[in-house]
Amino acid sequence: MTLPRRAVLAMPLLLATPARAQPRPVIVLVHGAWMGAAIWDRTAAALRAEGFEVLAPELPAHGADPTPPEAATLDLYVRVVLTAIGDRRDVVLVGHSFGGIVAAAVAEAAPDRLRRLIFLAAYLPASGDSAYSLSQRDPASLVGRHWRQDDPARYSPASLAREGIVETFCADCTPEDAAWLVARHRAEPVPPLATPVTLTGARFGAVPRAYVVTTQDRTLTPDFQRAMLAAAGVTRVAELPTSHTPMLAAPAALATAIATLAQP
């Protein structure tokens, strides 16, 4: 895939070799709603080429995972990520989109295992927030326009209208990548989206945080992303001039952003 020349970081690169080399952290990539772990393949490969150990767990009822949607819970997602982390203690946890909620809950559960949280075009919650409650603050998002759900009263799984998937998630992708994403679109379990997280300053708040803003995003709009990071007091920020899925539109630039923000 040929990357657009405009897909560069809007912050200075900090990847020069330091006077005393720091051990590289393990990078754990958590995908978002309607996606699976394969969305990370190119970015993970770029990070591994730079010497990072990279893990990309598949959340239950996503991607190729066989869990039925009705069995999916936010707690189950958190347990899957914690299992992937295992006994590692120097982890940079990256949450994309709804994966930001999962990452925040993981940080609350195991802050001692994390070097840093990176929110990538992600929901950045305060205690009591859910993905659903936060989404109500972003009326310009295209998700609501294309949301399809058979039985909302019973929290049935939700999809995006097929004709709206590319417009919402990856308007800047190649036709081949857009077709790949549409083919893998899977109905999303709704209860985890509506589950609030309980976060404390002593645990979640003790983990340093960074954010990657995607400035052409129509899923979580750039203004909404910036409002969340400002409310959370996050000042370590990169920007990518991409849609909601830079892992497809600009995977090498995204890998550079993650590696930069992962530095101590």
UniProtKB/TrEMBL annotation:
InterPro entries reported for this sequence: AB_hydrolase_1, AB_hydrolase_fold, Sec-Metab_Biosynth_Hydrolase
Keyword Electron transport among UniProt keywords:
no
The alphabetized UniProt keywords are:
Hydrolase, Signal
Domain AB hydrolase-1, chain residue ranges per copy: 27-256
**N-terminal signal peptide:** 1-21
* Molecular function terms from GO: hydrolase activity
Q: Which SUPFAM superfamilies match?
A: alpha/beta-Hydrolases
Q: Which Pfam families match?
A: Abhydrolase_6
Instruction: Identify this protein by name.
Output: Alpha/beta hydrolase family protein
Species annotation: Falsiroseomonas stagni DSM 19981
